[in-house]
Amino acid sequence: MTEATREPHETRLKRLRMRSMRRGIKEMDLILAAYADARLHQLGHEALDRYDALLEENDQDLYRWVSGQETPPEHFEPMIEDIVQHGTRA
């Protein structure tokens, strides 16, 4: 059992939101904080696991993926697409 699976759901959402806001690049702070505010409470357990893993990635890579400069790894593609779509709707 991982730490995330033992963590209460609301605590996990708060932790993920905080990690979304405290990145190394201001652009990623803004993009991920807005996404977290709008979508985290709607995501299921597996999607939260993917988002948690995504937050472990380097900010430079994340920025290149969401800006379309590089193709994200296949396992992150759906989540990156969701983040980009959310950003274009905001």
From TrEMBL:
Gene Ontology biological process: tricarboxylic acid cycle
Keywords recorded for this protein, A-Z: Chaperone
Record has Cytoplasm as a keyword: no
Pfam families, per database record: Sdh5
Family in the record: Belongs to the SdhE FAD assembly factor family.
Protein's UniProt name: FAD assembly factor SdhE
Taxonomic lineage: Bacteria, Pseudomonadati, Pseudomonadota, Alphaproteobacteria, Rhodobacterales
